[in-house]
Amino acid sequence: EAQVALDLALGRGGDQAIVRLGKDVKAFGGKAPASVSSTRVRVRVVAQALREIINEADMVLIMGHAHEDFDALGAAVGVSHLARVSKVEAHIVISKQDDTSRKMIQAIQSSGLAEGLLIDEGKAKSLVTDKTVAIVVDTHIPELVAAPELLRKVQKKVVIDHHRRAASIIDSPLLTYMEPSASSASELVTELIQYYGSEEEMNALEASCLYAGMVVDTKSFTVQTSVRTFDAASYLRRCGADTALVKKLFSMDLASIKIKSMILADMKQVDEYMAFAVCPEGTADSQIIAGQVADFLVTVQKIRCSFLFYYTENGLCLSARSDGSVNVQIVMEQLGGGGHQTVAGAQFGTDGNIEDITKVVVANVRKQTEEEKE
Fold first, then answer.
1. Which residues contact 26 (CB under 8 A, 6 or more apart)?
2. Residue from 167, 163, 210 nearest 187 by CA
3. pLDDT beneath 50, residues of the chain
4. CA distance 238 to 241
5. Percent residues over pLDDT 90 in the chain
6. CA angle 34, 40, 46 (to 5 degrees)
7. Which of 286, 283, 282, 332 has the alpha carbon at shortest distance from 307?
8. Which residues contact 356 (CB under 8 A, 6 or more apart)?
9. Any residues with CB less than 8 A from the CB of 176 and at least 6 apart, and which?
10. Helix axes 227-238, 185-194, angle to 10 degrees
């Protein structure tokens, strides 16, 4: 149990204590950003191990988390490139909640370069054999994957993720590559492609999808970046990443701008440095809009963290952002969610109550700031 606790602490980026309280596991600390390793030894070893796993498979099924964002889908497209150069059939399994990544899905489908690449969970389950490998990117929590039933059906699994490790993790993977210091899953996959040992370069679509994934998780290369992030980005540009296409993926319509203005008009501040707002129920693409408004609020003077409530077909959700001085991952974990030090979230279903959740968030953030003073 002590070894499991140590693995959990290191998997979350270090700088913290893991304490077992009865059946619960609690993490304390973890305020410093995860240190970035300058050596590429680990990525070389993982790339070769992944190559062996893919070469032995009859099919590779790739999935991110449900409600895929550009990083999850971009990383999945990158993994499909690895399977393609190994001459192994690959499919990306997408969830029914495709509103966040709709523009990228349309770009993939209209390119003509990846026919039949995207499939749903029903079709994927009919393709599974004993030799099938499921590669999960941008999450390691079994409840959050795009196709939970498929994950239970497949025997061989691989996990590639950049989030700090949670107490819940996919059971018995053949290979786990978790690097909390990385900016995005797309960055991790880009490095794996470089050390995979293939002469065949990515096409422009694959490079653009990975580049878009890095742009969305780094807020256009302004947060969570390291030297390795820019190395990966420059490699993608050399492979033909289309910045005009990426810009188009992030373009907004006038209706979205008006909704954002309404949300900001009703925003509430607590202790001056916390911002809370609600995305109106029934708003189209509510997750994207909530995330973008939350990102904007932490650029405002004095605001150190922002919390945006929004509704999906699954009920109430919360997007949390920080300028780095507050660890929103720890705050969201108290509510059953998770994420990064500066970007996190949680889902509450149909039972969520905004007032009660706000009280818990405020109490946890105040506790952190009081500990800083001490």
1. 18, 19, 20
2. 210
3. none
4. 7
5. 57
6. 95
7. 332
8. none
9. 140, 158, 159
10. 60
- How far, in Å, CA of 19 to CA of 25, rounded? 6
Nearest alpha-carbon partner for 105 in 147, 60, 152, 72: 72
Q: How far apart are CA 29 and CA 322, in angstroms?
A: 16
The answer to whether the CB of 162 falls within 8 A of the CB of 178 is: yes
Q: Which residue has the tokens 């993608």?
A: 236
158 in Cβ contact with 47 (< 8 Å): no
DSSP letter at 119 equals E
Residues in the chain: 374
Task: Write the burial class of residue 127 (CB in 10 Å: 0-12 exposed, 13-18 middle, 19+ buried).
Answer: middle
Place of tokens 């420059």: 234
105's enclosing H/E stretch is: helix 102-111
Pair of tokens at residue 201: 């370069």
Please give the Cα distance from 297 to 222 (Å, whole number). 15
